[in-house]
Amino acid sequence: MEELLKRNFVNAINAGQEIDDIFIVREKQLAFKRDGDPYLALGLADRSGDIKGVAWDNVEALNKTFVAGDYVRIKGSAAEYRGALQLVVQQLDRLDPAEIDPRDFLPTTERDVDQMLSRLVQISRTVQNKHLSQLLSAFFEDKAFVDSFKTAPAAKKMHHAYLGGLLEHTLSIALLIQAIADHYKGIDKDLLLTGGILHDIGKVHEFSYQTHIDYTDAGRLLNHIVIGVEMLDKKIATINDFPEDIAIVLKHMIVSHHGTRDFGSPEPPKTLEAIMLYYLDELDAKVTAVRTFMEAEDPEAAWTPYHRVLERFFFKGKA
Amino acid sequence: MEELLKRNFVNAINAGQEIDDIFIVREKQLAFKRDGDPYLALGLADRSGDIKGVAWDNVEALNKTFVAGDYVRIKGSAAEYRGALQLVVQQLDRLDPAEIDPRDFLPTTERDVDQMLSRLVQISRTVQNKHLSQLLSAFFEDKAFVDSFKTAPAAKKMHHAYLGGLLEHTLSIALLIQAIADHYKGIDKDLLLTGGILHDIGKVHEFSYQTHIDYTDAGRLLNHIVIGVEMLDKKIATINDFPEDIAIVLKHMIVSHHGTRDFGSPEPPKTLEAIMLYYLDELDAKVTAVRTFMEAEDPEAAWTPYHRVLERFFFKGKA
Amino acid sequence: MEELLKRNFVNAINAGQEIDDIFIVREKQLAFKRDGDPYLALGLADRSGDIKGVAWDNVEALNKTFVAGDYVRIKGSAAEYRGALQLVVQQLDRLDPAEIDPRDFLPTTERDVDQMLSRLVQISRTVQNKHLSQLLSAFFEDKAFVDSFKTAPAAKKMHHAYLGGLLEHTLSIALLIQAIADHYKGIDKDLLLTGGILHDIGKVHEFSYQTHIDYTDAGRLLNHIVIGVEMLDKKIATINDFPEDIAIVLKHMIVSHHGTRDFGSPEPPKTLEAIMLYYLDELDAKVTAVRTFMEAEDPEAAWTPYHRVLERFFFKGKA
Amino acid sequence: MEELLKRNFVNAINAGQEIDDIFIVREKQLAFKRDGDPYLALGLADRSGDIKGVAWDNVEALNKTFVAGDYVRIKGSAAEYRGALQLVVQQLDRLDPAEIDPRDFLPTTERDVDQMLSRLVQISRTVQNKHLSQLLSAFFEDKAFVDSFKTAPAAKKMHHAYLGGLLEHTLSIALLIQAIADHYKGIDKDLLLTGGILHDIGKVHEFSYQTHIDYTDAGRLLNHIVIGVEMLDKKIATINDFPEDIAIVLKHMIVSHHGTRDFGSPEPPKTLEAIMLYYLDELDAKVTAVRTFMEAEDPEAAWTPYHRVLERFFFKGKA
Amino acid sequence: MEELLKRNFVNAINAGQEIDDIFIVREKQLAFKRDGDPYLALGLADRSGDIKGVAWDNVEALNKTFVAGDYVRIKGSAAEYRGALQLVVQQLDRLDPAEIDPRDFLPTTERDVDQMLSRLVQISRTVQNKHLSQLLSAFFEDKAFVDSFKTAPAAKKMHHAYLGGLLEHTLSIALLIQAIADHYKGIDKDLLLTGGILHDIGKVHEFSYQTHIDYTDAGRLLNHIVIGVEMLDKKIATINDFPEDIAIVLKHMIVSHHGTRDFGSPEPPKTLEAIMLYYLDELDAKVTAVRTFMEAEDPEAAWTPYHRVLERFFFKGKA
Amino acid sequence: MEELLKRNFVNAINAGQEIDDIFIVREKQLAFKRDGDPYLALGLADRSGDIKGVAWDNVEALNKTFVAGDYVRIKGSAAEYRGALQLVVQQLDRLDPAEIDPRDFLPTTERDVDQMLSRLVQISRTVQNKHLSQLLSAFFEDKAFVDSFKTAPAAKKMHHAYLGGLLEHTLSIALLIQAIADHYKGIDKDLLLTGGILHDIGKVHEFSYQTHIDYTDAGRLLNHIVIGVEMLDKKIATINDFPEDIAIVLKHMIVSHHGTRDFGSPEPPKTLEAIMLYYLDELDAKVTAVRTFMEAEDPEAAWTPYHRVLERFFFKGKA
To answer: CA of F122, closest CA in chain E: separation in Å?
Structure first.
């Protein structure tokens, strides 16, 4: 099916402009004018920002055709009201989310997804161990997997919580491993790289992201750690004579990569490679989360607001 | 291969008796007599108890033929020394553990394993749901699985830490479920029973128990929760059209049955059935652990010694 | 004193109906019309739901005669305003809460209280031990105790947080004990049943529930665990020759039934009966809390909202 | 019954001395001489120290007449063996603990018990509130209570873990309260003093201390917090018209004096008086525990050994 | 520079009064009248309370001259609007905070700061140890330090969170130490007093309090514990031959005075003096925090609202 | 003073060899031969291993001249006894530890200390920021500091717990920073490098290591975090116009480098550079600790023994 294309992004709409475009409905409210007549007050969005919308005509019938969370095609015009832009809706049709590219509507990585992927594939080709190399190839030749892997976010909140975030985070881990894998003696670099590339694959099934980023049923009930092991099992089953002992230490890297039971790993890291992966994953997640948080807020302020999960203010310093 | 049979158990050996039997070597020490000559001082055992052993002849050569942890066949005689029995070894040959039935040497359930199994199978036949019923049948018709499931312990320490303990614990859970499944409305009894029967299957690969109960590599690196999900995946793959949504809630019961992340569950129980399984599992584990601990100690004492894991003394009351 | 009777429940009031009935005032606000004249905006309720009320006349004097939290008798009429019903108050009189049956106004068990009580008494009669049997009789023959025990909630929030909830929870525990007491050898079933029936008696003085469910001073300062032991002491003092050793293990069941110090038990369970009671109490509290939470929310949704105390979403599954 | 008197304390026994005195048996072992003959090796003690003992004659019969933990009367003589004193036992008779004053055998306060008591009574007379004053008098006029209260330890280990320790700790708290009660406005000094004097009374039943300091059954099953409230209830019941509201805040001080649930208080301190009592109790317990620990060890060392409960080394400084 | 003086405090302003005075701007909002004209709606305050303000003229230019948080001088008149006073602004000028005495605008101790200081200095003169005495003098003769020490708050929230609070808290600690320092033998009273007086000095640089109480950059990045040690180092460097061993135990009192690592002390108290300081500091902080919380709320209520940090309700009792 | 030199290391001593060398006395015991004569049984060591020693002559006088922990010069001969080497002591003289190079006796880095230092200095020269560059030079030109910094261990146990360990760990951190500092945008590489080089300088005063590695008084009372800030303050005071804002964020890196209060940091990392330092420090400490632990144990075993601090077994894999 051909995807519908977004043309005018919210942050480029001007007063007076005629609009025929796709939006996601974030809010919908049936409201009443002073004369008692109803109208629909809408919160519309795409990945570039938010805009209010109003529909004056045929309100009650229209109200039944869509709900908040839907993608809709709107024909109408932009107007200024009390100093803010709003869309005056002439026509509104609900769309099938399968026809939409969510990357136009959800927060998305700022980096080129295909470039990131090809760099990751290139790194994966440096793996010498025959079995691990075969395994990585099997994943990267699996088109359904690669499609999800390129689009999935790495989180709902916190770090890399945007489309393409999983790939961005995974590439970052792979590059960090390349940079320091030779720093310590006795590290199995092939194992470390393979574990680093595959540690979060369960997230492609942990999250749904058609209209907003959320957990799937499987994500909430099984956790991406367990899902990742299951995916690894299935892929290994397609490879001849994949050694059981390698499979176990590789699965251990997925199982233990959250570091402690408190954070969802059934077992803590017990191999040198698993320990390294854990700290590099933490480093990348936290640096990225804090940097994103710093950038999201008042660029003038020396301090961020209070971060509820990390339980502190962060210092951006003074210009 | 035909298994070697144990004939004289340690707790039935008398002074003066000629012995030709199998023992497990718990300790081995090269010691010296007053005249400087070496001898081997052995700690021997079977499931009924311990007995010391000594070998006076050809000591240095003999010493190289076996290590602590081995099964050995000993010919010799029982004698009393300083008020205790000991075996004077005339001949000692190391045995292949594969020829030995570990139930003669390791602590073992006092209940009839086959009776327990057939009762569990019978309960599993009350499951009405076609898919769950097929799944349970697939497990119980898998001879390799059933053999392990009948022998495996449920733990290394704490509760049901003996051969057959996994089956005993599983049957107990199934019976508790039968007793109270109708107590609450809205419980899916088929799901609860199936989850109850399968919640600990990963333990058949988490533990090794040829010469003593210990964790396997996979057990320590992956945890029986993850192993159990993998086993379930493999078995489900053999069944036609097993519904994905049932598979997820069933796997969730394995994933969450330790109740919190602190105890190794990547996700806590999020369905009513998973919540019930968690509490019944805890109830059975703790009551059994405490009762075993109470029985192991001085039957006259009102209080047990301090239990280091449960961090308290237990009260047995007064006769 | 004769109790005033509730006649028209909120969920059965229709526009245009004349009303003369009792309500509890949840909110009261002095507001102003466009012309500057004051009026009283009220939030009224009974156990069936909420309705808004307005009083236009003699507002300032009326305002001084009652506060939020009071029971009031209202004469007036129901009218529709902006799509919602409201009561237009003609007369409003504050009532003495002692004349009111709180079960008409607070959330209340859906089950028949007297039937539950008689079933519990019947179970209590299966106790063979003479002393324990006398003790249970002494409680059930104490009319003041029984009245409170039939009405008290089991909690302010969470599980069984409604009038009659304490009895409902206690009966559930007693039935669970009956169902599984013979499952384990070595359990003193009489002790377990008695402890199960009495474990939460302190809650009759921990909560007040005349106009809303809240803690009493004693409840917040002493905890129902301590209050329960005090109640047991007083009742035991009325029985001849109640053995001290039985009294201690019975009081221990009250003292330890929250399982750990973290949850308010000065000592954790140290007898088999106390351990069993703890897990059955947890099982019943959690299953009931989660089921109530599941039922309270959007019946279409597969997932509940986030549960702040249990810190997770719960899965109700799909139809 | 007349108590038997201790005459020669262990730390004053010299080689060659004839002994006829009472000892507590800390250890007893049936050992064998080189010639195979048995003898009894004893560990004997009184509050001043330890001495070894040996019995050569009639060993097997003698062995059956007493166990470790018993008080015994020994006739014999002191002799030096391998540089250490030992008692050579000629006659040994088990004694009834009821005839013994445990203060001769267990660690005991170095301060005058009667003086401490009379100072505490004197402080209790400064309480102006009629009801609280009556209550304190009722306790101090209760001879059985006072006898226990003068002898009981305040702990098994840690602070004031010696006979008379409870009184010593209580007096210290009362003096601290006197010193700072006027420091803060709005404190009910009578309530604070009464709560301070009574906060640990449950310890007279929590510990047994006839032959060594240990927990009683009630102590381990109910905790001195609950026992203390029960004792208070019984004493209050003997006083006319003791106001319920005073009883609750006073019981709250017992209930909450461990400060948090983690340390066994079902509720944390919720009144100013309970908060003050908690910190003064902590101050006295910790200062005393650490000072005792400092004094027990090598007086030359700048640092104590590692304190396992308080998890640190303590610094005594350099002379 | 001469400080500008506050004359009319908010709680003494009457309708109709002409105003020419200093206020702190808590809130500022550009709003619109029905006719579309803009006006400024202000929240103004001094330490006695809050008052609304409105500016009708020259709004857009005026709006650019100040922000929320500024001190401003306002000329205008007080008028009543919808039952509340408001200031109608005729002229508004932003002021330099350096010219303002923050004690007129921020919550401030109710006690006489100079009296408190002189009492503290007097106590400090009782210190006999030559080095400690010199050190205290050096601090009290340091005018810049004393100025800050007299004004600084002891906290942003919780206890003594007002100007002068640091001095008030420090004096309270010094008095408590005087009251009980002789209670225990073996305490170095000079050390305890000096540590008590200096334990919180780091707070003079941890907080800023020109327009509101907040953390400084150094406060958030270094913590007053570390800042306090740095200040002590600098002051000690000005004293001849200050003994290193005294410096260490004194710095240890600052380092450890939060009691545990959880609360920010890099090491827990390891000397008797540090232990005592910790508990007295806790006592003073908690009693003061709870008393302040009790006084802030409805004086009629028996219970305070829920205290989010201390996680409980507090009981004020009934009149 | 000239240092005495170690010549024969323990692991190179052969039976029959004459010895005149320095040892550290790990254990000393006065024992008795069968004939009742005393002798001294010694545990002697240098960094290469342990050897037993015996002294037969003039035992009681000799015994008074030294204690365990002393360095001694021993003349004597090596002999074999029951299959183990021992030194038969002819002469033994206590030595002044100041004359000894502890690196001959304590576990010591296997790497070249001077090479490591010069590499670290070289890295420090890449810092561009004038102030930070001056600061690093000031440290590396301070001979007393450099001497300690080259010898100090990084820990008493766990990671880099050997002489030279602090330098080895610091160099490793600096190299890791070089490898990944450009990986993230927005990182102040100069600040990160300087903080990385200086983060643990406090350890040169936290540990003593003349005869064994232990904490100093200052180490235990102040913690190396506080000591490090003090050292930084002193060095910054020697530099003209060192900017206060740089000083604060640099000190913050020392203050926060343990990551959380639980591990001794008064404040957690609040800048990107502090966050990165924390994770790299953790990575280096844990990888090194685990690798050392793996190497210390049976090289055949697939698993290490249980690690008490990290609370797990580690998997070394199979050859």
So the answer is: 30
Mean pLDDT score across all residues of chain F: 92
The whole-model pTM stands at 0.91
Nearest to E313, CA basis, from C215, D265, C207 = C215
The predicted pLDDT at position C318 comes to: 55
pLDDT, residue C118, reads: 97
Contact between A232 and A198 (Cβ < 8 Å): yes
pLDDT of residue E319: 41
Residues of F whose CB is below 8 A from A270: 312-315
How many other CB atoms are there within 10 angstroms of residue F200's CB atom? Answer: 25
Mutate which of D200, D226, D227, D245 to disrupt the C interface (most C C-beta within 10 Å)?
D226
- For E41-76, write each residue's pLDDT tens digit: 999 999 888 899 999 999 989 999 999 889 999 999
Q: Looking at E157-314, list the stretches that DSSP marks H as alpha helix, in order from N- to C-terminal side.
A: 165-180, 189-198, 203-206, 217-236, 244-256, 272-296
Of C270, C279, C287, which is closest to B313 when you measure between CB atoms?
A: C270
What span, in angstroms and rounded, lies between the C-alpha atoms of A71 and B186? 36
Distance CA F283, CA F159 (A): 11
Touch of F by B (3+ CB pairs closer than 8 Å): yes
Q: CA-CA-CA-CA torsion for A293, A295, A300, A301, nearest 10 degrees?
A: 10
Per-residue pLDDT, C1: 41
Give one DSSP letter per residue of chain B, joined into a string.
-PPB---S-GGG--TT-EEEEEEEEEEEEEEE-TTS-EEEEEEEEETTEEEEEEE-SSHHHHHTT--TT-EEEEEEEEEEETTEEEEEEEEEEEE-GGGB-GGGTS-B-SS-HHHHHHHHHHHHTT---HHHHHHHHHHHT-HHHHHHHHH--S-SSSSS-SBTHHHHHHHHHHHHHHHHTTTSTT--HHHHHHHHHHTTTTHHHHEE-SSS-EE-HHHHHHHHHHHHHHHHHHHHTTSTT--HHHHHHHHHHHHHTT-SGGGT-SS---SHHHHHHHHHHHHHHHHHHHHHHHHHS-TT-SB---BTTTTB--B----
Q: Is the model's pLDDT at B17 over the cut of 80?
A: yes
Give the number of B-F residue pairs with CB atoms closer than 8 Å.
7
Give the 3-state secondary structure of residue D6.
Answer: coil
**CA-based nearest residue in chain D for residue F38:** D82
Taking the CB of residue D57, how many other CB atoms lie within 10 A of it? Answer: 11
Q: Report residue B227 CA to chain centroid gap.
A: 17
Q: What is the pLDDT of residues A140-186, one digit of tens each?
A: 999 999 999 999 999 998 788 999 999 999 999 999 999 998 999 88
Residue D79, token pair as written in the block: 């002799």
| B70: CB partners within 8 A, 6+ apart | B24, B25, B94, B95, B97, B211
Q: How far is D94 from chain B (nearest CA, A)?
A: 21
Q: The complex's ipTM?
A: 0.89
Distance from CA of C317 to the nearest CA of A (A): 9
E5 part of contact set with chain A, CB < 8 Å? no
- The β-bridge partners of A78 are A87
Token pair, residue C143, equals 């009319």
E vs D contact (3+ beta-carbon pairs below 8 A): yes
**Residue A286 forms contact with F (CB below 8 Å):** yes
* Interface contact flag, E249 D315, Cβ < 8 Å: yes
| Interface C:F, ≥3 CB–CB pairs < 8 Å | no
Residues C11/C85, Cβ–Cβ less than 8 Å = no
